[in-house]
Amino acid sequence: MGARNRPSSEPRVPLSRERVLRAAVAIADEGGVRALTMRRLAEQVGAEAMSLYHHVANKEDVLDGTVDLLIGEINEVVDRFDPPAEPADWKKAVRRRVLAAREILLRHRWAPALFETRSAVSPQVLRYHDGLIGLMRAGGFSHDLCHHALHALGSRALGFAQELFDPSGAGGGEESVAELEAMAERFPHLVGMLAEVAHDDPDSTLGWCDDQAEFEFGLDIILDGLDRLREAG
Amino acid sequence: MGARNRPSSEPRVPLSRERVLRAAVAIADEGGVRALTMRRLAEQVGAEAMSLYHHVANKEDVLDGTVDLLIGEINEVVDRFDPPAEPADWKKAVRRRVLAAREILLRHRWAPALFETRSAVSPQVLRYHDGLIGLMRAGGFSHDLCHHALHALGSRALGFAQELFDPSGAGGGEESVAELEAMAERFPHLVGMLAEVAHDDPDSTLGWCDDQAEFEFGLDIILDGLDRLREAG
DNA sequence: GGTCGTGACCTTACTCTGTAAGATCGCGGC
DNA sequence: GCCGCGATCTTACAGAGTAAGGTCACGACC
């Protein structure tokens, strides 16, 4: 069944690695990586599971490919950015790139976790990092400091970092007073902090934080620290 | 088969959540999370797969449990640390904890990737972070700055961060001269940096870095940045 | 001591996964 | 008209998680 007795009226767009990978991203966007199975992927492109293997080596290849595709999207965007007017603007330029990457990855929440499971280095990731090094070099970094910088940034360079408390997780804000008191006994500092932070921000419930602000806070600490090292170096 | 006609001479140690989780860690240590299946886990504890379900809810629960177990190990170690002699020593104390956590996690390479897939917050993780906040509070941090600090540290707080280039991945150092030249054309800054960094360290091949040093470099940038903010704040 | 409930454990079976092997289909070149 | 060949589909299999129900040992009660 499926495409067996295909009416000749439907022209059948041919499969391709590109089309398969785009479909994979679409499926993951909708249902997470868990939903991305070869059969589901085949269905999405109007084919049978085994037909996919003429365009991708296996499922690992699909996962590698989707990562590459997404970073490629990021590269397309950041490549259009103007180079910094002054060398000293390296920090602004790097910051802008990272935040652009983050913006794209936020549309694919499943991607960061997937990235960390890839062992093969994607060419697009290499290209992205190459661009960052270029900016830092122009800003006065030694090669050595560039190298350290990439390590210091880690996944933050690509616009993500493990979010501390995921609000989508275990029931948000349904804690009873008794449960909260029990928590306060076991984790006094944590509950104290959350009580105060939540008070400052009335929208905030236990475990909710402004991801974007926190991300930028961490990013700025690192960039500022690197800038100081560069000046001293 | 299996435990069916068990001779009464063998006393049969009873299953328990604890024993199952410890076995799970052992299997993952040996063969990675991929090797951790319910059947393999049952075999390890001398039972049948379905018997495990009397002690754990399902496989997700096993994974959650192993995470909790490992962080519990970390907490046992860091809880024995003396509190800092002077408030200003918060940085040393936090640094010491993080590096202790890292040391333990380095013995379970599969764990970091697993952590990032857990949505439920482990009580042991809460306890660990609670301790960090305690140190920072004693060192003069506002609750707000503690909060930012945890976000800035991210997974680094627990002693890991995505390693940039995994040397175990795609063939280390077998690049031909032609391939290297092709790479240099596509990624000039990256290849330039690696050439120089590798030159400084003759042990280093393309893609190899001193993880521990890089980790501490990044950690120190963040801790120094936080210290400056605390003083200014 | 018999019996009976209760859980720990095992057996079987089902659905879903990735993918190997081979059949079939359709189109371009002779 | 025929052939060759690559793209596609069909079938099948091993291994995953786990639902449903059977079995068996042990402690509580009469």
From TrEMBL, chains A, B:
GO MF annotations, alphabetized: DNA-binding transcription factor activity; transcription cis-regulatory region binding
Known DNA-binding region: 37-56
Source organism of this protein record: Actinophytocola xanthii
Top-level division of the source organism's lineage: Bacteria
InterPro entries: Homeodomain-like_sf, HTH-type_TetR-like_transc_reg, HTH_TetR, Repressor_TetR_C, Tet_transcr_reg_TetR-rel_C_sf
Keyword terms of this UniProt record: DNA-binding, Transcription, Transcription regulation
GO BP terms in the entry: negative regulation of DNA-templated transcription
Domain (HTH tetR-type) ranges: 14-74
Alphabetical list of Pfam families matching this protein: TetR_C_1 (PF02909), TetR_N (PF00440)
Protein name: TetR family transcriptional regulator
